[in-house]
Design a protein that fits this description.
Layout: H1 3-33, H2 43-50, H3 55-72, H4 76-82
Helix pairs in contact: 1-2
Length: 87
Amino acid sequence: MHWLSQSFYMEAKFGLYKKRLTSIEMKFFRRTAGYTILDRNRNEEILEELKVEPADENLRRYKSNWLRHVTRMNNNMAKIMLNYRPN
């Protein structure tokens, strides 16, 4: 598979994953806040009321922290694996 088509595939896969994660997450937060779907509250209002951030933001921050950690490591193997691109 060409790297460009592979990156499009991964973006599409992450988009579906993100949509599923967001819906499951909001279902949990809605019930935690004591609302039902019939109450018609916006997701942003519920997140603000519960003082939480969306899971995708948390995952993005975790991933960037991990990448910074790997680049600071003295272990050359970790950097080689991070920058590895198959032919």
